[in-house]
Structure formats: C-alpha cells, structure tokens
Write a structure and sequence with these properties.
Strand order of the largest sheet of chain A: 3-4-5
Structural class of chain B: alpha/beta
Largest sheet of chain B: 5 strands, mixed
Number of strands of chain B: 7
Largest interface: A-B, 52 and 48 residues
Strand content of chain A: 5-15%
Structural class of chain A: alpha+beta
Number of domains of chain B: 2
Radius of gyration of chain B: 19 Å
Distance between the termini of chain B: 44 Å
CATH superfamily of the largest domain in chain B: NADH:ubiquinone oxidoreductase Nqo5 subunit
CATH architecture of the largest domain in chain B: 2-Layer Sandwich
Distance between the termini of chain A: 51 Å
Oligomer: heterodimer
Helix content of chain A: 40-55%
CATH architecture of the largest domain in chain A: Orthogonal Bundle
CATH superfamily of the largest domain in chain A: Cytochrome-c3 Hydrogenase, chain B
Radius of gyration of chain A: 26 Å
Number of helices of chain B: 4
Order of helices and strands of chain A: EEHHEEEHHHHHEEHHHHHHHHEEEHHHH
Shape of chain A: globular
Strand order of the largest sheet of chain B: 1-2-5-4-3
CATH topology of the largest domain in chain B: Beta Polymerase, domain 2
Chain lengths: ~450, ~190
Amino acid sequence: MYALGNDSSYNYNNDSNFNFIYLVTTVQDIEIPDSAARAAAIEEAQDIQGERMVLNMGPSHPATHGVLRIVLELDGEVITKADPDVGYLHRGDEKIAENMTYTQFIPYTDRLDYLAPLANNVAYALAVEKLLGIHDKLPPRCQYIRVMVAELARISAHLLGLGAFAMDTGAVTVFLLTFTEREKIYNLAEAASGARLTTSYTRIGGVMRDVPPTWCDQIRQFLKEFAVALDEANTLLTRNRIWVDRLRDLAVVSKEMAIDYGLSGPNLRGSGVEFDLRKNQPYLCYKDLDFDMAIGSTGDCYDRYLVRMEEMRQSMRILEQCVNKIPGGAENKSHEPVCVQDGKITMPTKEKVMSSMEELIHQFMLVTEGVNCPPGEIYFGHENPKGELGFYINSKGGGVPYRMKIRSPSFVNLSILGELLPGCMISDVPVVLGSIDFVMGESDR
Amino acid sequence: MSALESANKIKAKFGALIAEPVEFRGEISLKISDAEQIFEVCNFARRQLGFDYLVDISSVDNYGEDPRWTVVYHLRGVASGQELRLKTDVSEEKSELPSVLPVWRTANWHEREIYDMMGIRFSGHPDLRRILMWEGYPYFPLRKDFPLAGKPTDLPGVAFTQISPMEGGPFVTIPSSGDAIGREPRVRTPEE
C-alpha cells in the first residue's frame, strides 16, 4: 500500500512543497497480489475504522473569540473539512440604517467592532462625509483628533487580539499585560468622548467635542508606559520556543490566496501584500505623518502576529507625531474648529440656538430630517484594526440612506477558514482563529 | 491606468452592454444592462485589467421599480490602487444572475449573504445557502417589504422569532419627500 505524501491529512506541517511517496508494506500486500482487489480491501478497512467524526465547535466556546460556530469534520485529530457558521450576532444593522438618519446611526457603528469603537466611528463619519463631498475638507484639528483616536483604537484592538490569542494558546500572562494597557486606553477614550466603550465620538462633519487640555499629556504618558509593556509582551512571546513552534508554518496564506479571498488589514499584509489604506488611499492627515507598513514574508500565523506587533509600534509612532503636531496645540488656545463650519451639517451651539433664528432652524432640520445628503452612491473603505471596514451608502437624497452596506473585514476574513483549517489539528484551531483576529460583532453586524 | 481608462476599455470591449461611466465623488460606476454577462465582464476586468481584489458585492432593493434588484460590485486593483464599481439590474421574476465565484473566491460569502438577505440567487454557486440567518428561515429580511420589527416565524426549538417590541419608534423621515408633512419623522410602514 502506498500513499502520495501530498495528501494534507497525513501532512501535519502543511509542507506543500514536498512530494513524498510512502512505501508501506502491509499484510495485504502479500496476501492480495492484485492491486485492484487490494484497493477494495483498503477501502473496506477504512470504512470500518476510518469514520470521520463531525464535531461542532459551537457558538459558545472559550476559544472562538465570540459567537462563531465551526462544524469540523475530523479524522482522528486532523481536520478534514471545516465549515464556519456565522450569524449568531446578526442584529440587522443594515436594515436599521435604512430607518435612521445618518447621525442616529452613529451609536450602531460603535457596536460593530466593539474592540475598537472609535475606529468604526471615524470610518462611518468619513463615509457620510464622502457622500457629502467634504471628507477632504475637514478642519485640520478634527483630522488630527480623528487620527489619534483611530490609532488608539488600533492599539486597543491589537492588544486584545494579542491577549486573547496568547491566552487561548496558554500564555495567560500576556492577557493581563495587554488588558492593563487597554484600561489606560479606555481612560483616554473616556476623557475624550465620555464613554469607555460605546464612544460615538465622531459626528458628520467633525467630532462631538474637543479633547480636554490634558489629553495630549495623558497620551504621552501612556506611550511611555505602553512601550515598556509592549517590550515585555515581546520578550514573553516572540522568541518563545513554544509560541514559535505553535505558530510557525501554520495556516500559510499565499499572496494570491490572500488577494483572491479579499483579506484585508494585518492578514493581507502578513501574506506579503503591500497594501494599507492609510498609505495607498490616504485620507485624513495620514499623508503628513511618517510611518511604515509592516509586511510579512510567509503568511503563516507567526507572520500575522509579528505584523500586529509591529503595527502597534507604528501606531505609537503616529501618536507621537500627532501629539506634537496637532493644530492649536494640546489646549487649543487658538480655538481651532473641530467641526466643519457649515450650519447645514454641524449642530449649532445651544446658546446660538436659543437666541438666533437661523441656528434654531438649522437645529430643527438637522435633528428631525438629518444631514441633507445628495442622491448618489459612494463606497469608503477605512483601515480598521481588523481590516478594511467599508460603507457603501446608496442615497436617494435626504437625511436617511436608502441602502447602507457595511463591508465587514471580519466577515470576509472568516471565509478563508474553510480552506485554511483542513489539514490542521484541533489544537491548531485556536491558533488559526486568533491569528486571523476577527470579531463577531463586525462579522455579523 | 486610471479607473476611467479601465472603464472605457470595458466599454470598448463589451459595447452596447455597458452604459457611459458615471463619476461621483471621484468614483467611477459602470452600469451593465444585461445581468447574464456579469461573469464575462468581471472575468475581463480581472484577467485583462488587473482588478484582482473584489472589495464587496452589495444588493439594493428598488422597491416599486422594475427591475427590482440592483447588484453592485466593487472592484479594486491592488497593484494599481484603482477602484471601479459595476452595477447590474435583475428583475424580480428572474431574481437570478451568474455567480462570479470563479473570478474571485471571496464572492462565495458575499453572494451567500445577498441570497440570505435579499433572495437573489446566483447560478453556478456551489453552496448557496443562508449564512447570517438560520437554515429554513422563510423570509428575506433586507427587502423593503419586510418590516423592521420582523415577522413571527414558527421554528420550534431553533430560534426565538417574534415581532420585536419597537415601542412606537424609530421616527424617521422619508428621504427627499416633497412636502414638510411627508418629511415629518414618524413610524413608517414598509409600504411607504
């Protein structure tokens, strides 16, 4: 009996570059000289002992990062088929968006990628502003605040992704390290927007309010402490023998596969594709900031992990530059505006509303009818921590979108699981899931 | 090569099938008059023009118009960075168009989601089943005639589906309605 060694169920290391031919002599070789009868006998033997087991890695599972259900077909410990079943967190956001004004929908965007709500807010506000045609005409201070807030969200999401990933593979200390740092980011978010998680910080045309005067100093302090913590996590994991052995050469995604499957964010860059929306299609003030893209070489889990670690360092770099370059300085002594100064887009201040007719009318129209957007359709993709969060807004005019499609990075990233998991063992599943780093709130909307 | 040049190349190749490229906010949209040809157009766009990344497939329900469905493809070329939007209309009686799965494998889940939410079928899709809602769910939730509060279904042991308590809200205007009374925010039923 012989078997071609390229069959992935025998090839635990996914070494698809080698082709071995195993020559195994069994009793059947000697007893049944005719090869056709031998093949039939082998099939019979497999029927008796080689039944595939269907295992449900159910929606409620400590290692599936949220409510993801994967139906695994197993041959012993090795997975032969994997079918991810999403939709357990489907809340109908797109249908809700058709019934709400653009500003009313902002709290729903918080809950998409609930690990980085500030990034979702920025993405959505930019999409609506693109529809209005003002996404490149935002006041500079607003742009800097949005960039800072988006990079803080990126660090926060990568920290949690890393912490949960490490915890699933057994390195529990990293989880506690990263969550201590996330706590500081939550404090920063609370200082800026008033809420730790459901920030709803941006508005169409600007941000909800200016950052407090001490915010930039708090960020500087955070960056100092975070650098230490990141180095500590790096020491614990990056050259850890067990970590490397578990992650190296697992679930390799080639460049072509990554592009074909529509991966985005660190997953795409981990496979070697040099595509980052902040660099390739710059928006806000990313053009003026100096940072590098982290690109992986092989596309295995280890590369994706390294890309995320490096992205956190680059986000730190961006934040350093922003706190030094923010127009108006930390305390905004020159009273730079943080919203577009257009009465039909930005809500006027309460004093003006109570005293002036024009502002009263603007306030009334904006609250009841929403921002009046022109008819047309746009798509805007934003570099979220998980990938490319895109909004396709089809508007027939008025303050309510006719159709809003949320292009969710986690939804698209998960589609590759059906191809990545077969050939892995069950214990590799938490590693693969953690390295893809998805969040179900975004995937299911 | 800019997106407009690519759009013109597609128009040159497919002729009467493609309308004039429309530009809005820096994006180029191309309308394809026959949905059956969408596979050929997408294949040409990928193989010849280098649009190797399918960003998104969306569907729009033009309730009250014929054809009812519009399927929107967002294409991107990774190396060149150019983006293009392809739109095609599908009538309600047919509710089917070819799948572009052989061109980009990411279309798999996007098409399943469109089938799940809108009920548009994709011929040639190997595994067209519901993805966000559960198997056996009888309705297509994103259609305009499906109410926001939901419809009760009878799926014992599988899921809880009753009309969700909306308490009278959300109060919404109709976009771009002519008179102020029409624009008044109040609860809307799907017929409007």
